Amino acid sequence: MIYLLDTNVWIQFLRNRNALVVQRIHAHQPSELRVCSVSAAELYHGCLRSAKPRAEPSGKVRGQRSGQRS
Fold this sequence. Notes:
mainly alpha, two-stranded parallel ribbon, disordered C terminus
């Protein structure tokens, strides 16, 4: 059987936060586990952000944010 895991499940597994999640993932062969392109992109984006947790947004992004209405 093939399992498509959500981004949150991968994060819990990668950070070793939930013993049950880790146990269940280890109970399956890697060929049975999948990650969709959206989850892969979210994980990639999260990795990039975590490498620079205090980075300021560029001036262009800052300006766009301040121009938005609530």
